[in-house]
């Protein structure tokens, strides 16, 4: 195996570099949703920066929020990559973030049903994805390797 890119194993999975345990296809849901959440955070950060241009005294706060959202997005990208490679730190980091997303989703659902439901559905998809039998089995084998 060469480089850092996963190679096909022929069993519907990818074999990451390092521990040699194939990543199950079920992990694709987790990785894709984490990537989509990162893109939403980056888009929101851009909107904060655009809004800050004419926001006067609020510009500093908006830029601060934009920076925070970019940091969160970078963390999600790292967690998605780490999850695909079955790194043990990635699952608890992503689940902790998703618990925050659930709290946020519940808090906004009365004012914005779409935003609230979007948060809840994506967070639950990631959490459930981590606990599907193929993903749990792969993580267990990666921890033993």
UniProtKB/TrEMBL annotation:
Disordered: annotated segments: 1-20
UniProt keyword annotations, A-Z: Membrane, Transmembrane, Transmembrane helix
Record field: transmembrane: 26-50, 56-78, 99-131
Protein name: Histidine kinase
């Amino acid at each position: 195996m060469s480089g850092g890119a996963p190679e096909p194993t022929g069993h519907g999975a990818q074999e990451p570099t390092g521990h040699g345990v194939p990543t199950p296809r079920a992990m694709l849901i987790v990785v894709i949703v984490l990537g989509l959440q990162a893109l939403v955070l980056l888009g929101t950060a851009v909107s904060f920066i655009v809004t800050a241009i004419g926001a006067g005294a609020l510009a500093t706060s908006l830029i601060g929020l934009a920076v925070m959202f970019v940091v969160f997005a970078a963390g999600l990208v790292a967690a998605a990559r780490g999850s695909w490679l079955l790194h043990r730190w990635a699952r608890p980091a992503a689940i902790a973030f998703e618990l925050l997303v659930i709290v946020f989703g519940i808090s906004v659902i009365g004012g914005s049903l779409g935003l609230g439901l979007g948060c809840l559905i994506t967070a639950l998809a990631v959490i459930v994805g981590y606990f599907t039998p193929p993903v749990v089995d792969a993580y267990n084998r990666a921890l033993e390797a």
